[in-house]
């Protein structure tokens, strides 16, 4: 069953009609509806294509947050073998919003780390909707450190609304944890490849995505603040999120122009959630290619630092 | 070694940067309500003489107090692409920038200077909360990188005074990218084994706290400064409960292990001198209100430096 987004309502109606017709035909073999149903299919496919080739920045945010979108867990279980989760920050707790561990990619050992949002009410609560607490960043720092010592490339999968705005998170040094995680990304000698698979929310994303190569799925977003948050501050009206999403330039395509995103990964027509297997395969291929580009045995630190120092010279094409 | 031998590009006008304050004006302390003469307040570094409340102080006024005789050379900051996103909310970003420049008489939200503090060569950078809430964009990032590079060049400590509402939203992702960019700057200092001291002032929040403000060798905050990643209002909305008194204030962070010290503004300079001199392996501090470096000597140095620049 498809979970339709609000803007997909017209599509839901057409696909609903086609499904209804086919259900009726199954009940009554005399009916010949196939021509009509196929016409509806065609209409739906055209509409889907029309909608998804012209997604506004705000609609991209909705697609990026879609509950059925493949999540970190799906990528890890499909693209990696021998995944061995490693838990805990050795200090306070294990943060379930961040998963990570040793695994093999294309047979070679790597460290994989990512935000996991969960896929039903129970797991969403357990995963804190992908919003890490300080322990999550500190676990990531620990795993990155280990990878660096043993010469394993690091792959991060980013999908978070942002850091968790909670009392304990602040008390335990959320800011410091994020700052140290970003710093660790910059200190790694081994290759660091990052894919924004859904939402790249602010500091919580930077802490994992300060990478040699940053790829983004075509309908993922990466932003300094959520459009709702930006709208309520700059427009004094949270309902102006469409305007804010546009102004923030948070789409993969715009970030590619700005040099923040190195590579855009195609999504199936209608978004990642309409064909998870194809999406995951596309991401796997991109990771493989990025690792191959970086697999020189050289210390990556200097090049990665230069990349970030040079960032921001490119404006948007007029 | 003559202390002035490291004195690079003094701009003579900065020696006279202590602003003239009208004598007959007063303002009200927003904490205790006491009426304070501007002059009296300025002499007390904008700290209420009645209740000790620390008010905003401009980077230039801070530097006038920090550097010996108030003399410092402004460090050039590469000017970035203004308005890289063609950002427009209710106003155009360039218009907001112009208004802030007019209001503060400053180029941007961070001032970088180099000079001597208690005869100790330093680079100092100070964020200006009155300039678009001190927000961190490309310019602030460039300023911190320039400050770190200058400190490495002069082999001296960097002291950074933070104050910011967070990232400059009008620069979108490029403001966020200042978190890694400024972290690279801090890495340069670490590699050169130079002290990096952060002085956190009210308020220091968001992406600023979650990058260069929390990566110092020593963290000192001014009393009662709000220091956080997510602001108290956002947290109250999320967890739907009232936060404890003093939550996210300097003293609270000190208790929770995020700061080394909470120090009053009036004692800050002496403390910074003491700490930096020990970290640099220098003799005990020379404190107090030291005179400005000799102007003619400074001018000679400036000429000498110019000569070096043109040959290099
Ligand atoms: Zn007062």
UniProtKB/TrEMBL annotation, chain A:
SUPFAM superfamilies hit by this protein: ClpP/crotonase
Pfam family, any one: ACCA
Catalytic activity: N(6)-carboxybiotinyl-L-lysyl-[protein] + acetyl-CoA = N(6)-biotinyl-L-lysyl-[protein] + malonyl-CoA
Pathway annotation: Lipid metabolism; malonyl-CoA biosynthesis; malonyl-CoA from acetyl-CoA: step 1/1
Coiled coil: 11-50
Main location (coarse class): cytoplasm
A GO molecular function held by the record: acetyl-CoA carboxylase activity
EC number in record: 2.1.3.15
GO annotations of cellular component type: acetyl-CoA carboxylase complex
Localization: Cytoplasm
GO biological process: fatty acid biosynthetic process; malonyl-CoA biosynthetic process
Alphabetized InterPro entries for the sequence: Acetyl_CoA_COase_a_su (IPR001095), ClpP/crotonase-like_dom_sf (IPR029045), COA_CT_C (IPR011763)
Keywords from the named record: ATP-binding, Coiled coil, Cytoplasm, Fatty acid biosynthesis, Fatty acid metabolism, Ligase, Lipid biosynthesis, Lipid metabolism, Nucleotide-binding, Transferase
Domain CoA carboxyltransferase C-terminal: 39-293
Highest taxon above the source species: Bacteria
Subunit architecture: Acetyl-CoA carboxylase is a heterohexamer composed of biotin carboxyl carrier protein (AccB), biotin carboxylase (AccC) and two subunits each of ACCase subunit alpha (AccA) and ACCase subunit beta (AccD).
Similarity remark: Belongs to the AccA family.
HAMAP family per the UniProt record, alphabetical: AcetylCoA_CT_alpha
Function: Component of the acetyl coenzyme A carboxylase (ACC) complex. First, biotin carboxylase catalyzes the carboxylation of biotin on its carrier protein (BCCP) and then the CO(2) group is transferred by the carboxyltransferase to acetyl-CoA to form malonyl-CoA.
Protein name: Acetyl-coenzyme A carboxylase carboxyl transferase subunit alpha
Organism of origin: Pseudooctadecabacter jejudonensis
Source species taxonomy: Bacteria, Pseudomonadati, Pseudomonadota, Alphaproteobacteria, Rhodobacterales
Encoding gene, per UniProt annotation: accA
UniProtKB/TrEMBL annotation, chain B:
Ranges for domain CoA carboxyltransferase N-terminal: 25-294
Zinc finger (C4-type) stretch: 29-51
Molecular-function annotations in GO: acetyl-CoA carboxylase activity; ATP binding; carboxyl- or carbamoyltransferase activity; zinc ion binding
Gene3D superfamilies: 2-enoyl-CoA Hydratase, Chain A, domain 1 (3.90.226.10)
InterPro entries cross-referenced by the UniProt entry: AcCoA_carboxyl_beta (IPR034733), Acetyl_CoA_COase_Trfase_b_su (IPR000438), ClpP/crotonase-like_dom_sf (IPR029045), COA_CT_N (IPR011762), Znf-ACC (IPR041010)
EC number from the UniProt entry: 2.1.3.15
Catalytic activity as recorded in UniProt: N(6)-carboxybiotinyl-L-lysyl-[protein] + acetyl-CoA = N(6)-biotinyl-L-lysyl-[protein] + malonyl-CoA
Full protein name: Acetyl-coenzyme A carboxylase carboxyl transferase subunit beta
